[in-house]
Amino acid sequence: MKNDSITVENQSPVRAPVLSTGNHACAEGALAVGCRFFGGYPITPSSEVAELMSKRLPLVDGTFVQMEDEIASIMACLGASFAGVKAMTATSGPGLSLMAESIGLAVMMEVPLVIVTVMRGGPSTGQPTNSSQSDVYQVRYASHGDYELIVLAPGSVQEMYELTIRAFNLSEIYRTPVIVAADGTLGQMMEPLSLKPEVEQVQRKSPQVSPQDYKPFEVLDEDLVPAMAVAGTDYDFYATGLTHDEMGNPRMDPESAEKLITRLCAKIRRARTHIYDWETYGLEDARLVVLAYGVNARGVREAAERMRAEGHKIGMVRLKSLWPFPDELMDQLGHRVQKVVVSELNNGMLIREVERFRHRFSVAGITVPTPVPLRPSEIYHRLLEEI
Amino acid sequence: MLQQSTSDGYHQTEHPLAEMLNLHRFVFCSGCLIGTVITSLATCLKEENLTARDYAIVSGIGCTGRASGCFKAPAFHTTHGRAIPFATGLKLAKPRIKVFVLSGDGDISAIGGNHFIHAARRNIDISVICVNNSVYGMTGGQAAPTTQLGDITSTTPYGNVEPPFNLVDLAAASGATYVARWPGYDTLRLQKSLRKGMNRRGFSFIEVIVPCFTQYGRRNRKEGTIEMMEGLRAIVDLRVGCPPHEAVLDLNNGLAVCGEFVETDGIGFIENLQNLRERVKERNAGKE
What is the pTM of this model? Predict the structure, then answer.
């Protein structure tokens, strides 16, 4: 079966276009796509997401609850999602560290939910009021165990809105937590935001069999995603963080573990080409390509445009989804590109993924663990050295 | 009741709570009162005519963590200590259903201690049933915040020197509006209390004292499960109107005060939030 999807008129009292922060745009996107539960804990630079949700959710019969910590926040979202309500939490690096265990539980119980992380400098308390892209691996590997995760990376206030909407729909389609990873700068800065007049709301698959015949983790479709019953219906079901069989019964034998883990990973891996999202510039004749994401990609774009105007055969890829990493895109680049330069605001993280393709092209980095975005002129001069 | 004959000639009688319970998920040691707590709750749910659409059960992990899966209901075996915030989200998102947390003392008072006190403060309308066996059973009998002074556990081989939590007093101080403690064998009082807890507003907390012979008794010169239960019965002091700070639980010095310690009626979190929504919508409508 396919997911049910409805297109609803945007009920937001905000009229487009407006000047909005990235954090507020994120909350607007969540409300537009039908998020009606927010559990959160204050943390800079993400708190404005919670603040706007606390103001707006009661007006649409939703629930805002400020929990006692980030662990409780995400666990409340898991509970709400199992009651059939779309749920979100928003945090930053230290909070996401606390959520790590529960992300694993959401993967294991296959719970649709959205986690927004507005990245700040780390390690530890780091730079709460400054920006960063240093959580690229945290968002992918926070929890222990073997799993795949979907992570989106907006590059503008408008995309904070649009990718939050997309994150909810992906989470419902694949019954999985989805992370929206934004730079701190993006959460805090203001830009014009155009709200969509209509928004597509995708719903998780619900059981098509009677409660007696329902197996909560049975795969009936090609997409490897089981139908999800929720509390308060006639369905009884058991969801556990332990390795389990189709009925949810805990299973400790190696075959059951292999079967479950393989499926949980495969349901995301097999859908990766539908999840991938990127934007390209100047690839038609590029010999050198810069790869960037988030707010840093804006400076990279300006530098690339300047270099193209000067006659350099340079192109650009801006990733809007970080994970699963687009291996196929790297293979395509390998056909005609001699070098890929990765620019990111950390000590070199996503560049390690690109380096797996050194057999296709050479790889260089403009990777600086700076809390403020690189100037376009600085990127320009560094890129000239790579020509 | 259904009677079935097995191949070796014995008559098997169907469990009277078979329609409520997944009996194949009982993993407990023989004689463990966790089973009694489960059947007591199932009996209450049956008497109240509650079915899968009316309630949900949430557990953390550990011995009692395995209890949720025994119910034919939406049942959740979450992570260690996190049953209460999961249950909070579930209840907030679907206020119509009754939400129970059934978990152990380590789960609720150690790793989940912060969630416990905040749920009580928030007065979220859920029933928390804590099976207190004074020890981490599933992991091999290590000391818990409820282990009595002087007790031998696998991590206190020379005797426990940390005073235990009094969960009744802790719940009451945190704002719980219904607090009770019962010995696990006293199913009639426990059932009466469970029904009271599930049919009232606000946060209710019921502690059930369950002796653990396998992981605790063996190390502390107890003879067996039955003897431990007899020993508990000898020191239980049932009181009426006892203030929570006098609810002593001192198993090694012969006093286990049981009964109901807090019972106040007040608006719970669910009702408070609904009132807030209506107030805000009314104010907003006035603006337009």
Answer: 0.96
